[in-house]
Design brief:
The protein is built from five helices and seven strands. Keywords: Signal.
Length: 174
């Protein structure tokens, strides 16, 4: 039984070089693909910047549905949301759903203006930068809100989830 369990695990080796500046670099990384378990296989490879960038597109598409529950499904159960247009920190699914129920009334559409992606490991990444929301009021009038953002993603159960999301209106000036 034990042999069968270990047969599905990847074998990976990495040598880490610590530089005098304190940064680390992986060298000599190699891994064997896993047989039969895509969720575990995904966790053995580092995500690409393109894969992490696509998570915002997924989130933006969920906004377009107008369904707060669909948006909240992209967040981990214990995620922290510091939203753009609310002073209240949201720390659980019910609070995140509540925020998006109100936010989605404005039919938000987000556009990334500038982004920086940091891959933290096989199961964590940060996407941070500037985005703009186009909001449409009940009267049909459109406004734009420039904001800064940070999404912290973690791979859990084979799915990338938002574990921390901070968004705040961009101050004017330097």
């Amino acid at each position: 039984m034990r042999r069968k369990y270990y047969a599905g695990l990847a074998v990976a080796t990495t040598a880490v070089l610590f530089t005098s500046t304190g940064s680390t670099h992986a060298i000599g990384t190699r891994s064997q693909p896993l047989a039969g378990n895509p969720a575990v296989a995904a966790a053995t490879h580092y995500p690409t910047e393109r894969q992490i960038a696509a998570l915002f597109d997924q989130w933006n598409a969920a906004l377009a549905t107008g369904n707060a529950y669909r948006v909240a499904n992209l967040y981990a159960p214990n995620a922290v949301l510091l939203p753009t247009v609310s002073a209240r920190i949201r720390t659980n699914r019910a609070e995140i759903v509540d925020y998006f129920k109100h936010f989605l009334e404005n039919k938000p559409v987000g556009t990334i203006q500038k982004r920086y992606i940091n891959i933290l490991g096989r199961n964590a990444a940060i996407d941070t930068g500037l985005y703009q929301f186009r909001l449409t009021g009940k009267d049909g009038e459109t406004t734009k809100v420039n904001a800064r953002y940070t999404y912290v993603y973690q791979l859990r159960g084979g799915k990338w989830l938002i574990v921390n999301h901070h968004s705040s209106e961009l101050p004017t000036g330097d």
